[in-house]
Amino acid sequence: MLGWFKKKFTKTPTPPPEEILEDGPVVEEETPLAPESLPEAQASAETTTETLLKEITDPAPEPEETEATVIAEPVPEPEPEPTPITAQPEVENKIVAKALPEQEVNAEDQAPPQTAEKKTSSMFQRLSQRLAKTRDSFVHQLDTLFLGKKIIDDDLLDELEEILITADIGINTTLELLDDARRRVKRKELSDPQSLKKILKEKIQAHILDSNQPAELVMPQQGPFVIMVIGVNGVGKTTTIGKITRKFKLAGQSVLLVAADTFRAAAVSQLKIWGERNQVPVIAHKEGADPSSVVYDALDDAHKYDVVIVDTAGRLHTQTNLMEELKKIKRVMNKKMPGAPHEILLVLDATTGQNAISQAKLFNEAVTITGLALTKLDGTAKGGIIVNICRELKIPVRFIGIGEKVEDLRDFDAGEFVDALFQETTN
C-alpha cells in the first residue's frame, strides 16, 4: 500500500498538458479585453487564427506526442486519489482506537466496587428474607408490645419474657436479659421501650460472640487441615460437607473426602455424588467396614491435600456405643496424624429447638466440639436457638444453612445475623 502511494505521488508533478493550454489561444484571447484600439485587436485575432491553422496543419506529429502524453497521464489521475485527505482519517482512527481502551479500563476499575456492593447487599437481603419466620415471631411481637408504650413496667417485662421464651432464646438466657433490663430501669438508665429493644439487640449479639473457641477456623502451619463432621441422623451432615467442600475449592484449596459413615447404605454413594460435583476424590470402603480403618487408610494420602473432611455416621446422642465409636475415630486420627482432627464440627437442625442443646452437650462431652453448623434456619420461627447454644456451650457457630442451594450455606457473622433478625420491614 505505502509503495503504491509513493508511485502515485512521484507522477503528480507532470503538468505538460497545462503548459500546452497556457501556450495556446487561451493566453492570447486575453488581449481583446484591452479597450485601447479595436482595429488592432481584430488584426491580432486574425494573426492568431492563422498561426493556429499552421500549428494544426504543419506539425502533425506534435499532437500525437501530446495525445501519447495524455494517454499516459490517466495513470497519474491520482490527483483526486493520492490527496492526503484519505491518509489523514487513518491516523485519526488510530488515535481514537488508543483512547477507547483507556476509557474502558477506567470503567472496569470503577465497576468492581459497584458489583461488590450489590453482591453484599443482595446477600444480606437474602439472609434477611430467610430469617423472616423468626423475625415475624420475635421482632414483630416486640414492636407490637412496645407500640404506644411510654414506660417500662412489670407488665411489659412479663410479656417480653413470654416472647423471648417462645423464640427459643432459652429460659436461662431470657432471665439474664430481663434481670439486666430491670437493673437498668432501677438505675434510671433505661426508661424508653425503644431503648430496651436496642439493649436486647446488643446483649443478644454479645451472647453469640461469647465462646471459648476461636471465632474463625485455625489452619495448621504444616500438613492438611482435618475436619471431623458429626451429628444425629437427618440433620444434613453429608449435604453440609458437600457445601463446605465447595467453599474450600473456591478458595483454591485441594480437598479430600472420607466416607467413614459405613452403616447407612446410601451414605457412601451420596458423598461420592458431592465429590463428583466438586471434582474432589472420595476414599471409601465397602459397606459395614470399620470407620476407624477407613480414616486410618485415608490419612496415608492426606499429605497430598490441603483439607481433609471426614463424614461420620449419624447417631443419636443417647446411643452410648456409637458415641464410643466417635471417640475411637478421634483417637485413631490423633495417633496417625498428631493434632488431628483440627476441627470437630457438630451439625444441628435448627428446627429441633431446645433439643439441639441437649444434643450439643452430650456430643461435646464425648469429643469436645470446636464449631457448630446450624441448618434449616429458613424453615423455623425459632432462630433464637443460636443465642442459647452460644451462651450455654461457649462454642462458635461456623456456618448457617438458610436454603437448599449450595450458596445458601453461609459463613456465620454475628453482627450480620442480628441485623437481619432485627431489621425493620415496612408493610
UniProtKB/TrEMBL annotation:
GTP binds at residues 231-238, 311-315, 375-378. Pfam families: SRP54, SRP54_N. It catalyses: GTP + H2O = GDP + phosphate + H(+). It is a peripheral membrane protein. Its EC number is 3.6.5.4. Keywords: Cell membrane, Cytoplasm, GTP-binding, Hydrolase, Membrane, Nucleotide-binding, Receptor. It comes from the Bacteria. One of its GO terms (biological process) is SRP-dependent cotranslational protein targeting to membrane. It is found in: Cell membrane; Cytoplasm. Residues 1-10 have a biased composition (Basic residues). Residues 19-31 have a biased composition (Acidic residues). Residues 1-86, 104-123 are annotated as: Disordered. CDD domains: FtsY. One of its GO terms (molecular function) is GTPase activity. GO terms for cellular component: cytoplasm; plasma membrane. The keyword Cell membrane applies. SMART domains: AAA, SRP54, SRP54_N. Residues 396-409 form the SRP54-type proteins GTP-binding domain. The keyword Calcium does not apply. Coiled coil: none annotated. Involved in targeting and insertion of nascent membrane proteins into the cytoplasmic membrane. Acts as a receptor for the complex formed by the signal recognition particle (SRP) and the ribosome-nascent chain (RNC). Interaction with SRP-RNC leads to the transfer of the RNC complex to the Sec translocase for insertion into the membrane, the hydrolysis of GTP by both Ffh and FtsY, and the dissociation of the SRP-FtsY complex into the individual components. HAMAP family: FtsY. Belongs to the GTP-binding SRP family. FtsY subfamily. Part of the signal recognition particle protein translocation system, which is composed of SRP and FtsY. This is Signal recognition particle receptor FtsY. It comes from Candidatus Desulfatifera sulfidica.
